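Posting here for the record, re: nicotinamide-adenine-dinucleotide.
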Amino acid sequence: TAKVIDGKLVSNQIKDEVTAEIARMKNAIGIVPGLAVILVGSRKDSQTYVRNKKKACEVVGINSYEVNLPEDITEEEVVKHIASFNDDSAVHGILVQLPLPRHMKEENILNAVNIGKDVDGFHPLNIGCLAMQGRDPLFVPCTPKGCMELLHRYDIEIKGKRAVVIGRSNIVGMPVALLLQKENATVSMVHSYTKNPEEVTSQADIVISAAGVANLVRGSWIKPGAVVIDVGINPVDDAETPRGYRLVGDVCYEEACKVASAITPVPGGVGPMTIAMLLSNTLGSAKRIHNFN
Ligand code: NAD
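Prediction output follows.
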């Protein structure tokens, strides 16, 4: 059966490394990294994500600055808050929690973040650099970076391998495909219009699934010995749990375990890596701004 890729364990290692680096920087130059988090509206899931990010900052020693704005605020007002964080020297990273209310254009908001503080890596210039040969973005989006970090820390070879990415969203599928390509994998994309996704996926040495569809990827889709990174987080009804549901990935875990050589569980795989990468990006930003190595 497949080896389990333990995202919880790796994310804790990364948090320890970040904590030590922050202490070293504080001792050397007296600077503590700061992360500003902007939440618009009152979605319960977004509130939970923001709370978890703040808690993680506290654990590693990053100062966090939170702004909660009402659902009906104008785009201009949100941009003003971003602009003031752009100018604030205590802030090294700015994160706008997505999704935004419907009346706002995501592009207008994300464009307002100074690309040097864009720790989510969603600014079009950062994405553009990710796509270009010989260019490196200042920041790589956190979930895709977390997927790559898991492959690296488990010594999984990427160069020359066939990789299939399922899903092509701006926040996961597209950037993770670009990262795999940068590391010389041969990458195919599977999305909701792909004909015969099973046939395409079964060619892959590395499968990264970010479709958001429970049980999409069956054991029969996986080439024997392939490595499977399951980004999906999908609620499925389960009367036996107190909340009435549980979270599963896109991949039929039990089936895939029998064919894959290594696989990430859900929860405990990619999930915990996202926040670890946000902390690492925020530290990286403070180091870059203060020219500290
Ligand atoms: P999204 O809905 O924006 O994009 C989904 C993509 O999957 C689309 O490109 C679509 O074409 C493709 N798709 C949908 N149904 C498909 C199908 N049946 N076959 C093939 N492709 C299909 O979603 P997203 O924001 O990219 O998130 C994807 C999943 O990853 C979700 O379950 C989300 O909860 C999870 N996620 C996890 C983390 C994390 O681990 N920290 C972060 C972000 C997203």
